[in-house]
Amino acid sequence: MDILAIESSCDETAAAVIRDGREIISSVVATQIEEHKLYGGVVPEIASRRHCESIVGVVNEALEKAGKTAAEIDAIAVTYAPGLIGALLVGVNFAKGLAFSLDKPLIPVHHIRGHIAANYLVHPELEPPYMCLVASGGHSHIVKVNSYTDFETVGRTVDDAAGEAFDKAARAMGFPYPGGVHIDKAAKLGDKLKYKLPHPKTANPYDFSFSGLKTAVINLIHNAKQKGEELDINSLAASFQFTVSDILTSKFVQAAKDNGYKTIALAGGVAANSGLREILEEKAAKNGMKLYVPPLYLCGDNAAMIGCQAYYEYLAGVRGGTDLNAVATMKLDKITY
Q: Is 50:42 a contact under the CB 8 Å cutoff?
């Protein structure tokens, strides 16, 4: 079964053709990062306009690289939640029109489910049940993956997501958007133990809180400037990255231990962070857990992961109609169509 998938939840316009949920036939991503750098972050109105300009070309390129015509595709999949509402609407409406005109099934996909599914594309042996840590610009979740379409959130951020904290702390340190990659590079040159940063507490031991940590970094920088002191930015980046990674991995591994999981996975844009990957690999090995991590090209937003998850949603009977709408906010385990 060949599925044409479309992703437009933020600032990447993406399309892919996925076969039987596990094989990437083609994958195309048009990014807007260079334009949003001018504003220090994603501007929703600009993002949605660029999606309008790019989506036809991106879809055509994905079909061409797959050696397929639109009529030869078996189903159309699209990210419909969560994300920037204007950006989502571009993909949803394009997918609805295409599916209707071709008389093909339309499969709506939850964006976070897609991130989790990215691991299936490169780890054929990975099957539920397992526990997954999803960390990205807008999401930080600890998820029980009971089946391909049955998810249970056991922990999540109560304020800022990990990726959001990276970007805001990076801006304070003087790095351009997107900040995570610049902190990662700087951290390799610094001392991760030089600056002591807080580990915020939460009522639920598996929940995350990064707002206070981000504020602590900003205050440290402001105080140093007021006193005329010079900061070691590389070491501050290393200390921040280490603290975020330690918080994420400690809570995640503890949740896996408490719930009896020996198979765990990592997903989302922040999964590309080398510090996070290194620490999680160490803790997984120490606790006798099998860890699955996606390659860097599947960590960020892409349509391949959406096509992968769409296959399993299709097998579960999920279909979207012409009344399918985009939804900006939707919990992973409480999905409506």
A: no
